[in-house]
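Lab notebook page, bench 4
Experiment: in silico fold of construct C2
Operator: M.H.
Input chain length: 99 residues
Purpose: comparison with the prior construct
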Amino acid sequence: MATVTVYSTGPGCIRCTLTCRALAAVGIDFRVVDLSTDAAAVELVTQTLGHSEAPVVVVDQHPDMHWSGFRPDLFTQLAARIEGEPNGGQTAGTPTGRV
């Protein structure tokens, strides 16, 4: 069951907004973490994952699946990977982000 997290710099970030819309368009549930208000999240994406631009998309159960920037080429691959998991990668009661 995959959990997708989008680390965003807020609603003013067009790439973050486009990423959230594209994830929703292919049916991927996700949550949004605002990097402008969460220092621990900034440390995770910069120090642990090594990214320096937003958005950062992380598939929590797959440490190898994370990227930064608006990457429409990866959305259908991610949807297929999640669909192949038990329960379609869905977790009941998981909050989702929608932009």
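Observations: Confidence is low (pLDDT under 50) at residues 88-99. The chain has one domain: 4-87.
Next step: discuss at group meeting.
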